[in-house]
Amino acid sequence: MCLCTTTLTAGGTSTIELGVSGDLNWLIDTMSSDEIDATEVWCSATAADNAIRQYSSDCMFDIILDGEDIGYDINTANVTAGVLKFICWWKPLEFGATVIPAVGTATL
Predict the structure, then answer these.
(1) Cα(108)–Cα(98) distance, rounded to whole angstroms?
(2) What's the count of helices (H) and strands (E) in the chain, helices before strands?
(3) Rounded to an integer, what distance in angstroms lies between the CA atom of residue 44 and that of residue 64?
(4) Contact 20, 104 (CB under 8 A)
(5) Percentage of the chain with pLDDT > 70?
(6) What are phi and psi of 52, to 5 degrees?
């Protein structure tokens, strides 16, 4: 789940998407980043869907397996301000499985 705590501001016609390596919009298709506002849960490429789910847990659940990296990709122009808080609910499906948060990168 991704909660927007500070409205995203684009430096131009910035778009954003969420996915895994090789399929950058698998989880959330490409949308204009300046349509993601504070108090919204970013869970859809449709701004109205995100607004309906303000601080809600009614979001997607997907299973990511075998070393896939989840990441967002910002296209066309930079996002100049805003905060997205990513929340990961995780349960190991096999012995020794791990999840490791990464920092500092906006692309896969």
Answers:
(1) 19
(2) 1, 5
(3) 18
(4) no
(5) 83
(6) -65, -30
